[in-house]
């Protein structure tokens, strides 16, 4: 059952990844993600439906525009493939549960925000702010759990996690504004919703892992002389990766820690 669900989620992820390519390109530029239809930036020809099949079309066209031969970046199929794999792994981990839609939504915005932050060092409000009501609605559904036992305590934890992580990042920006921006603060609230829903251990580990992983990456850049002490790095990807660690491993590590005490 889980294998079939993962395969279906992977196929959906490929299609979502194709859309995310549009989001990553247009949202930072303030453009609509639905109009006009995608076209070759060189010759202006619209992308035909048969040339818009995730991954497959890029391979068939050998990475070039059908009309003018302009190279098409390999990033496009890689984003589609990565999103498909991420969706499949998420479905495999969560199974057929009501929390799965919430996690798939987080995976989708995670891919988009990671790429945008790497490209522009920004986390656009157009993606982050709508994620509050969307994530909350999906987590309400997960807490309600139609057909099973409801867990409204998880929703209360989610709201506390949202407020707590937002406050922590807000204070961090006030104390050390060079370290991160208010886009990170806004994203922290969304991630706090998810981490709090999964448990206090997830919340603590998700917060800690972001700074640990981001710090290790920064130290690596310094050692390799790829950055200086004043160089800025996008922190959004590390927040998202830390949240993933918290969701997957947080409660297990938290329980082991309490058991050791």
UniProtKB/TrEMBL annotation:
It comes from Cellulomonas rhizosphaerae. Its EC number is 2.1.1.-, 3.4.23.43. GO terms for biological process: methylation; signal peptide processing. Keywords: Cell inner membrane, Cell membrane, Hydrolase, Membrane, Methyltransferase, Multifunctional enzyme, Protease, Transferase, Transmembrane, Transmembrane helix. Residues 105-219 form the Prepilin type IV endopeptidase peptidase domain. It is a multi-pass membrane protein. It is found in: Cell inner membrane; Cell membrane. It comes from the Bacteria. This is Prepilin leader peptidase/N-methyltransferase. Residues 11-92 form the Prepilin peptidase A24 N-terminal domain.
């Amino acid at each position: 059952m889980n294998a079939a669900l993962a395969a279906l989620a992977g196929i959906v992820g490929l299609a979502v990844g194709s859309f995310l390519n549009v989001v990553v390109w247009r949202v930072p530029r303030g453009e609509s993600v639905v109009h006009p239809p995608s076209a070759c930036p060189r010759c202006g020809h619209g992308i035909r439906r048969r040339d818009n099949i995730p991954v497959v079309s890029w391979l068939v066209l050998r990475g070039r525009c059908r009309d003018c031969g302009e190279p098409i970046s390999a990033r496009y199929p890689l984003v589609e493939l990565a999103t498909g794999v991420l969706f499949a792994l998420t479905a495999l981990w969560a199974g057929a549960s009501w929390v799965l839609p919430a996690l798939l939504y987080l995976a989708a915005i995670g891919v988009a925000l990671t790429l945008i932050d790497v490209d522009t060092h920004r986390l656009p409000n157009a993606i982050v702010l709508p994620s509050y009501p969307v994530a909350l609605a999906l987590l309400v559904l997960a807490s309600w759990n139609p057909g099973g036992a409801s867990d409204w305590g998880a929703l209360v934890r989610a709201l506390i996690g949202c407020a707590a992580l937002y406050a922590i990042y807000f204070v961090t920006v006030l104390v050390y504004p060079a370290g991160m921006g208010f886009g990170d603060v806004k994203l922290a609230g969304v991630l706090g919703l998810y981490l709090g829903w999964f448990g206090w251990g997830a919340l603590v580990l998700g917060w800690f892992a972001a700074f640990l992983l981001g710090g290790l990456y920064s130290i690596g850049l310094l050692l390799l002389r790829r950055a200086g002490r004043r160089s800025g790095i996008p922190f959004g990807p590390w927040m998202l990766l830390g949240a993933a660690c918290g969701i997957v491993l947080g409660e297990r590590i938290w329980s082991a820690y309490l058991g050791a005490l």
